[in-house]
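Design request, tokens follow.
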């Protein structure tokens, strides 16, 4: 299906959220304000306020030394993980270096384990424990988000995304009852698996495609007409999840089946979605919809052109607003003649202005 490529050109496939430290800012801001939180579900043990305290401790050094050999991941190891290592993800003292803390837990603890069976046991234990924390409404939100981010960053010994983490990520991403910030972190983890498919076996890559594709419909809520609460607005979290789902779609299903094409068309036509979400849906539909998608091409093209017109109108109105504001500030600040008309430029003769400054917008 061919759409207006001039309209679609320039829409980025990936935003800047992969930059270090950016993800946590996104999920904690986009996820919306959190309710007042109690103390951490499992605060760091005494003497282990920071990751540096952990690494310098005799307990940690002894544990890592044992696991580097053929040591088992036993009850002693589990206790240290629960009481000392994992609470570092929610420690206020680690806030400036949380990205580094997550990587050091993975690289200097998990990936340091020499025995494959112990590595699998430790990884599974940590994944399951962090999944519990991420779903615990009584836990601190920062700790919950970091828990899910860590699961998404888990790798095997070859630093390929760890396949057993994928199901946990997909389940969380597709759960509408889960904290949106945690869901966003889960989607980010799924993107890590997508990015790592080129280094996976064929079976592993196929499993990633299947899991992510099955999650995509849950990332796009029903259209305004289908929602029970018709007064509800699209939250920033819902918009973020939808755009990330759209971003993953071309990598997984191309061309898209009729049900997904219909979902994209519904978003394009649904004015309750923010403009940028609708534009991204149009871009993805243009890339992935073939003749078998079963959509009305003429109607979709008309909708896309309508979006283009709306975009130009929004730009025009914003340009007019900014021009009027600048002119008003210049006049009010003594930089222009007293009594300068709102929206008029210095030097303009009376009568040159249109109604509400339209001439300014057209000239500017």
């Amino acid at each position: 299906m061919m759409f207006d490529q001039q309209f679609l050109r320039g829409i980025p496939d990936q935003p800047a959220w992969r930059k270090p430290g950016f993800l946590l800012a996104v999920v904690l801001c986009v996820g919306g304000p959190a309710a007042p939180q109690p103390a951490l579900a499992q605060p760091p043990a005494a003497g282990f306020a920071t990751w540096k305290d952990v690494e310098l401790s005799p307990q940690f050094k002894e544990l890592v030394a044992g696991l580097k050999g053929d040591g088992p991941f036993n009850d002693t190891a589990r206790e240290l993980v629960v009481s000392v290592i994992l609470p570092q993800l929610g420690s206020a003292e680690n806030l400036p270096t949380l990205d580094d803390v997550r990587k050091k837990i993975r690289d200097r603890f998990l990936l340091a384990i020499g025995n494959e069976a112990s590595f699998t046991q430790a990884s599974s234990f940590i994944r399951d424990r962090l999944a519990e924390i991420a779903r615990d409404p009584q836990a601190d939100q920062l700790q919950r988000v970091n828990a899910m981010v860590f699961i998404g960053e888990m790798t095997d010994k070859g630093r390929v995304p760890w396949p057993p983490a994928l199901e946990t990520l997909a389940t969380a991403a597709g759960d509408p009852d889960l904290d949106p910030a945690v869901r966003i972190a889960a989607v980010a983890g799924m993107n890590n698996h997508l990015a790592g498919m080129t280094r996976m076996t064929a079976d592993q890559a196929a499993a990633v495609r299947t899991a992510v594709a099955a999650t995509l419909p849950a990332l796009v809520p029903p259209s305004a007409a289908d929602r029970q609460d018709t007064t509800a607005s699209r939250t920033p979290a819902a918009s973020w999840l939808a755009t990330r789902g759209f971003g993953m779609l071309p990598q997984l299903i191309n061309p898209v089946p009729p049900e997904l094409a219909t979902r994209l068309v519904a978003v394009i036509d649904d004015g309750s979605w923010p403009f940028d979400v609708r534009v991204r849906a149009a871009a993805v539909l243009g890339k992935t919809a073939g003749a078998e998608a079963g959509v009305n091409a003429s109607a979709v093209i008309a909708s896309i052109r309508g979006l283009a017109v709306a975009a130009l109108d929004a730009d025009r109105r914003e340009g007019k607003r900014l021009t009027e504001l600048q002119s008003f500030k210049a006049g009010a600040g003594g930089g222009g003649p007293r009594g300068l008309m709102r929206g008029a430029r210095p030097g303009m003769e009376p009568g040159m202005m249109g109604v509400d400054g339209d001439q300014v917008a057209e000239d500017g």
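Comment from the thread starter after seeing the answer: thanks! The radius of gyration is 26 Å.
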